[in-house]
Recover the amino acids of this structure.
């Protein structure tokens, strides 16, 4: 009974933040909603493993969420590669190349969708650590200290990741 009460308070406290974070990574409302449910299932299943001396509850939940979203993105990339390989070797007539998905983000106005679509697509091409740092610091507006705690790295490492991410984004945007 006690675990259920603790979980309920964790869910109420972090559900919207985790949904927003998932939406930034996955860029589809339905995917973010599904991911949020899956993340909280993981939180519930692993609540007994939480160690308050190692990290704050918020940091721990965010780490689970980020890892889950990155895993989903990796699976999506693997499916696209597999589909491409299958199209070359076996099913050329029936395979349709995957298209860039239309971003369904409620915070994006219709007239801004194309520019935001391009920017989010470029952010998704960054290495995972840079992508996570940019999403947490710039999109989620988290402090560098919070980003460092969530990612389990130093503040200096966050600064470095953000600088490299900005440099990479600048190069990719100018192409």
């Amino acid at each position: 009974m006690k675990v259920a009460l603790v979980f309920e308070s964790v869910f109420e406290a972090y559900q919207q933040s985790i949904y927003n974070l998932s939406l930034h990574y996955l860029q589809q409302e339905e995917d973010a909603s599904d991911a949020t449910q899956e993340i909280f299932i993981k939180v519930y299943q692993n609540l007994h493993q939480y160690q308050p001396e190692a990290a704050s509850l918020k940091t721990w939940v965010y780490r689970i969420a980020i890892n889950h979203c990155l895993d989903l993105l990796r699976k999506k990339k693997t499916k696209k590669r597999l589909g491409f390989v299958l199209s070359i070797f076996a099913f050329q007539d029936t395979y349709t190349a995957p298209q860039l998905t239309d971003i369904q983000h409620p915070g994006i106005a219709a007239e801004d969708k194309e520019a935001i679509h391009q920017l989010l697509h470029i952010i998704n091409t960054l290495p995972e650590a840079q992508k996570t740092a940019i999403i947490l610091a710039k999109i989620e507006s988290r402090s560098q200290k919070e980003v460092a705690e969530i990612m389990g790295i130093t503040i200096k490492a966050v600064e470095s990741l953000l600088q490299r991410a900005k440099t990479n984004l600048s190069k990719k945007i100018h192409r």
In short: The chain has two domains: 1-106, 108-175. Residues 108-175 form a domain with the Arc Repressor Mutant, subunit A fold (CATH 1.10.10.10). The chain has seven helices and no strands.
